[in-house]
Specification:
The protein starts with a strand and ends with a helix. Strands 1, 2, 3, 4, 5, 6, 7, 8 and 9 form a 9-stranded mixed beta sheet that branches. Helices cover 56% and strands 13% of the residues. It is built from 14 helices and 9 strands. The protein is an alpha/beta fold. Helix 9 crosses helix 11 and helix 9 crosses helix 13. The radius of gyration is 20 Å and the shape is globular.
Length: 292
């Protein structure tokens, strides 16, 4: 099956290179940065003029975009994916999108004769390059089964989680929890600074007990070891995801208490000019804020 891939940022480019490693034929479409597009073309991929043309040339359309608005813009309109969709084609949204948006697009794709899967990702671009992502797919089961071998080329753990929107729902809950832990750990390191306690000593004690987690170690990777790249995920994207979680909760008419603090911290860091920094670097924001 020929694959069309839209969105060649850090994660998308890694996934495209992995698909090329596995021998898949690809047609690609980027946005602002052409680095990933040029790298794919150099290995035999072709570039589409727009999303409609990409869909006309693809059996599977994959999107790795930053926001629901970006996904909707690529999917809809006279030059969008839906306008060019082949009968029986499967569209896979790897981004972190709002479940309500996902369900609406799934209905529109079904009306056009295709199937839509939400399949957000876990892990990092380096895992994407190695085919070791966690893929949280949901939507039409028959469509999932058809593209499961291709998803298996990209993911070490590939889940089917139920009806359309379930993947994005679980992803938002996952990211809310992860970003809450990251903010808490960053503040803990900053508080240790204020108290005159070594960050390494704090980590050693916390890591010896049940508090230890992968996210805790990612933050320690920068706060103690100076390496922000262990978690290649920006503060701006984290703020967006926690905001989506809160929007999802509001749509269900429930009040999320815990996400309010993480959202406040992430947004404050973005407003402080740190949006493009990696999540682990938010420790610098907390440390500077405490110093006044």
């Amino acid at each position: 099956m020929r694959i069309g891939f839209l969105g060649l940022g850090l994660m998308g480019s890694a996934m495209v290179q992995r698909l090329l490693d596995c021998g898949h034929g690809l047609v690609v479409l980027g946005n602002r940065d052409r680095t990933g597009v040029e790298a794919a073309i150099a290995r035999g991929a072709t570039e589409a003029a727009n999303a409609r043309a990409l869909a006309q040339d693809s059996d599977i359309v994959m999107l790795c975009m930053g926001t629901s608005d970006q996904v909707e813009a690529r999917m809809r309109g006279t030059d969008g994916v839906i306008a060019g969709l082949k009968p029986g084609a499967v569209v896979v949204d790897f981004g972190t999108s709002l479940p309500d948006s996902t369900r609406a697009l799934a209905d529109e794709v079904a009306a056009a004769g295709g199937a839509y899967l939400d399949a957000p990702l876990g892990r990092t671009p380096s895992h994407g390059r190695e085919g070791k992502l966690n893929i949280m797919a949901a939507g039409d089961r028959a469509a999932f089964d058809r593209v499961r071998p291709v998803l298996g080329d990209l993911g070490e753990n590939v889940f089917h989680l139920g009806a359309s929107g379930s993947g994005h729902t679980i992803k938002l809950i996952n990211n809310f929890f992860g970003m809450t832990v990251a903010n808490a750990m960053a503040e803990a390191f900053a508080m240790a600074d204020q108290a005159g306690v070594e960050r390494q000593a704090l980590y050693d004690v916390m890591a010896a007990g049940p508090l230890r987690s992968g996210m805790m170690d990612f933050v320690k990777g920068y706060a103690v070891d100076g390496d922000p790249a262990q978690l290649a995920f920006s503060i701006r994207n984290a703020a967006k995801d926690v905001g989506y979680y809160r929007q999802m909760a509001a749509g269900m008419e429930v009040d999320s208490i815990m996400s309010a603090c993480a959202h406040k911290g992430l947004n404050a860091a973005v407003e402080d000019g740190r949006g493009e920094a990696m999540v682990s670097e938010i420790v610098d924001f907390y440390a500077a804020r405490m110093k006044g």
